[in-house]
Write a structure and sequence with these properties.
11 strands; 167 residues; single chain; five-stranded antiparallel sheet; mainly beta; rod-shaped
Length: 167
Amino acid sequence: PIPVADLELSKTVNDATPNVGETVTFTIIVTNIGPNTATNVNVEDYLPTGFSYDSHTVTAGAYTSTTGSWVIPTILVGTPVTLTIDALVLPTGQYTNFAQVVGADQVDPDSPHGNDDITEDDQDAANINPINEADLVTTKVVNNANPVEGETITYTIEVLNDGGPTA
């Protein structure tokens, strides 16, 4: 008999509408539905151009940020494994982040590994719509509120960026 491990992948992001310059967290969960233990599982999760890698954590295996490869030696039936990636939102680029199971020692009966079919349960995506707006606050003050006709007055105008990207 051919060993079978039905791998399911889900991907979420903690904030779908972050400000540019903020950090978002992507969470990828891979679950083995069985019936056999999955071995040498390889998941790809490349950060698109709209993000800059910051850090990651895994509950199993090892993730390499430069290649986007998450290698998991073993996934037991019914025991999910998790990868979280923190990334800085950049002002321009692509903002849909895909992840998929691209390989394992076992056959997946309902979704062949690495076939780029987003409708299958071994691939998922998280999309964000970043807000690229600064929150500018302007104040204007005059040095003399009651001038005499002909007297020179000075206006001082201040602009403060109270949030969002650099203006």
